[in-house]
C-alpha cells in the first residue's frame, strides 16, 4: 500500500501562492519568530519547513499502512509544507492570540547565546535551575545585577524565541579560555556544549526491539476515518518533544491520556493562559481520581481510555463540566496537549507506580520522556509495562539517547542543536522535529506489533532527530514572493489561513494532514 503520489504540496489549505521554502517561511511566521533574536524577520539557515513536511508525510504514510493492516478505511493523505510551517510555530501562535490580560508582556529583543570564549570558540550553556546559573556566572566574575537580570530571559528563551542578555555576560565569557569555562561549568553543575560544525547525519532516527512475549490478541480493528482510531496512548511527558508526539498521535485518531503529577503539570499554568475561570490546580482531584481534558478530541477520534481514567468528552468527579468552559491552561501547553485526557499519579510512590501500571493495562502505547535513572528507580521500565500489558508498545524519548552514558548533560533542544551542528535559531527546531521523529517511532512499533504479534520497545532522542534533520535538510536560494508575516495574531485572523488555523481559546494549527478513504 502506498500513499497518493500528490500527497505533498506547498500551500495545502493555505490560500496563498506559496511556491518555495522561502514563501512558506515568510507567510507562515517562521521568518518572524526566527528573527526575534536578530532584530527583524530572517530566513532560517536551513529549509526547515520542507524537512519537517517530509517527516510529517513519512509519518502519515506509516499511519495509512497501519490503518490498512488493521482493516481500516484510510487509503491516502494530503499534507503541505505550509502546514508543517504552522506546526513549527504552533506554541508561538497560541501565545500571540491568548487574551490573558494578567500576563506580563513578552520582550522580544535581539541578542542571546551562543557565547564566545577567549580563543573565539562559540559555546552554548544550559541550566534549568537558578542556583546553577548564579553559581556559574558568579564564579566567572559577573556582577550580581547582570546575573539576576539575565536569568529570566535565559530560562524562557525556548518559549519566547528571544533571549536578550546583559552585554556583561558575553564580556565575562570572552575573558576566559574554554578549558577554564568547562571547569567552572563542571564545578557548578552548568551544562556547556561547544557549538559544532555540521554534525553527524547517519544516526538512526529511532531504535526498535521486541522484548519477547506474545500479545494476547491483535490490536483493535480500525473503523473510523482516522488511522489510529480505536488505539489508546498513555503519555507521561513534560517536554515539547514527547508532548508534541502525543499530540500528533491524537491528531491521527488515538485517544491520548496524560499521566501527570497530583495537581497537574506545572507547565499547564505558565502564562499566557486561555480558558477559565477555574484552574485545574483548584479542582478537587486526588492522585488516583479520574481524568479531565483541556478540549474535545479530534473529530472522529475514539473515546476509549485506560481503565480508571476518564476519556476526552466525559466529566470526571470533581472536574469542570462542559458547560463551564475549559479550565484555565497555558496557551503554549494547550498547543501541545489539547484534547488529551488526564490522569494523576505520583510515580515516586508505590501507589503511583501501581496507578501507572493499572492505566497501562488499557493502553496500546506507553510514551514517556523520563530522565536518566527514573525508570529504574521507579521500577517502571519496558519489562514492567510488558508484564502489565503484554503487547504494549513502550516508547521512550530523551535528549541524548544512550550514547553519552548513564549521566548525560542536560538534553535540551538548545544544547543538542549546538552539539549536532544544526544551524542556529532561537526556535525549538530540534524539539519539534524530534516530536515528529518520536511519533514515527511509535507507528513503526505499532506496525511491527500488528505484523509480529508481540510488543515492541522503541526509543528516539533529540540527538537522533538532529542527525536526521542534518541528513534531510538543505538550503535553497531565492527570496520570498509573498509578504513576510510580522504579526502572528494577524496571521491567525487572515482569511487565507481560515482552513489551516483553528480557534480553541487561542489560535492553533489544525491537523497537518487530511486523510482520504
UniProtKB/TrEMBL annotation:
Residues 304-323 are annotated as: Disordered. This is Carnitine dehydratase. Residues 304-320 have a biased composition (Pro residues). InterPro entries: CoA-transferase_III, CoA-Trfase_fam_III, CoA-Trfase_III_dom_1_sf. One of its GO terms (molecular function) is catalytic activity. It comes from Actinosynnema pretiosum.
Amino acid at each position: 500500500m502506498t500513499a497518493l503520489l500528490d500527497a505533498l504540496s506547498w500551500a495545502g489549505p493555505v490560500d496563498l501562492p506559496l511556491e518555495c521554502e522561502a514563501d512558506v517561511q515568510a507567510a507562515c511566521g517562521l521568518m518572524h519568530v526566527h528573527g526575534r533574536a536578530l532584530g527583524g524577520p530572517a530566513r532560517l539557515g536551513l529549509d526547515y519547513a520542507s524537512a519537517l513536511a517530509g517527516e510529517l508525510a513519512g509519518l502519515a504514510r506509516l499511519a495509512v499502512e497501519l490503518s490498512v493492516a488493521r482493516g481500516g478505511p484510510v487509503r491516502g493523505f494530503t499534507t503541505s509544507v505550509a502546514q508543517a510551517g504552522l506546526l513549527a510555530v504552533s506554541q508561538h501562535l497560541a501565545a500571540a492570540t491568548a487574551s490573558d490580560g494578567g500576563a506580563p508582556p513578552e520582550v522580544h529583543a535581539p541578542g542571546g547565546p551562543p557565547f564566545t570564549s577567549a580563543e573565539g570558540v562559540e559555546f552554548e550553556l544550559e541550566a534549568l535551575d537558578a542556583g546553577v546559573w548564579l553559581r556559574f556566572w558568579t564564579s566567572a566574575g559577573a556582577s550580581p545585577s547582570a546575573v539576576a537580570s539575565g536569568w529570566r530571559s535565559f530560562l524562557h528563551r525556548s518559549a519566547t524565541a528571544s533571549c536578550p542578555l546583559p552585554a556583561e555576560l558575553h564580556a565575562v565569557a570572552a575573558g576566559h579560555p574554554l578549558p577554564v569555562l568547562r571547569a567552572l561549568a563542571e564545578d557548578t553543575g552548568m551544562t556547556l556544549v561547544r557549538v559544532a560544525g555540521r554534525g553527524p547525519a547517519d544516526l538512526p532516527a529511532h531504535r526498535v526491539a521486541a522484548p519477547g512475549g506474545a500479545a494476547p490478541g491483535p490490536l483493535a480493528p480500525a473503523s473510523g476515518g482516522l488511522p489510529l482510531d480505536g488505539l489508546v496512548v498513555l503519555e507521561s511527558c513534560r517536554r515539547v518533544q514527547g508532548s508534541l508526539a502525543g499530540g500528533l498521535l491524537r491528531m491521527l485518531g488515538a485517544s491520548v491520556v496524560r499521566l501527570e503529577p497530583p495537581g497537574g503539570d506545572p507547565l499547564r499554568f505558565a502564562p499566557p493562559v486561555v480558558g477559565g475561570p477555574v484552574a485545574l490546580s483548584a479542582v478537587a482531584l486526588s492522585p488516583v481520581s479520574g481524568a479531565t481534558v483541556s478540549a474535545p478530541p479530534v473529530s472522529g477520534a475514539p473515546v476509549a481510555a485506560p481503565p480508571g481514567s476518564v476519556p476526552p468528552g466525559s466529566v470526571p468527579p470533581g472536574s469542570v463540566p462542559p458547560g463551564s468552559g475549559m479550565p484555565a491552561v497555558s496557551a503554549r501547553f494547550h498547543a501541545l496537549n489539547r484534547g488529551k485526557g488526564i490522569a494523576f499519579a505520583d510515580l515516586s510512590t508505590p501507589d503511583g507506580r501501581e496507578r501507572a501500571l493499572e492505566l497501562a493495562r488499557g493502553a496500546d502505547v506507553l510514551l514517556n520522556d523520563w530522565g536518566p535513572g527514573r525508570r529504574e528507580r521507579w521500577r517502571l521500565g519496558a519489562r514492567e509495562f510488558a508484564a502489565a500489558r503484554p503487547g504494549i508498545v513502550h516508547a521512550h524519548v530523551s535528549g541524548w539517547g544512550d550514547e553519552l552514558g548513564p549521566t548525560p548533560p542536560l538534553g535540551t533542544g538548545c544544547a543538542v542543536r549546538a552539539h549536532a551542528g544544526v544551524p542556529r535559531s532561537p526556535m525549538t527546531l530540534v524539539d519539534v522535529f524530534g516530536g515528529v521523529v518520536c511519533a514515527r517511532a511509535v507507528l513503526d512499533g505499532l506496525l511491527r506489533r500488528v505484523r509480529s504479534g508481540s510488543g515492541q520497545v522503541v526509543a528516539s532522542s533529540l540527538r537522533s532527530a538532529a542527525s536526521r534533520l542534518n541528513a534531510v535538510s538543505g538550503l535553497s536560494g531565492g527570496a520570498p514572493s509573498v509578504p513576510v508575516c510580522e504579526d502572528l495574531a494577524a496571521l491567525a485572523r487572515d482569511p487565507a489561513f481560515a482552513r489551516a488555523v483553528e480557534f480553541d481559546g487561542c489560535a492553533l494549527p489544525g491537523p497537518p494532514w487530511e486523510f482520504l478513504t
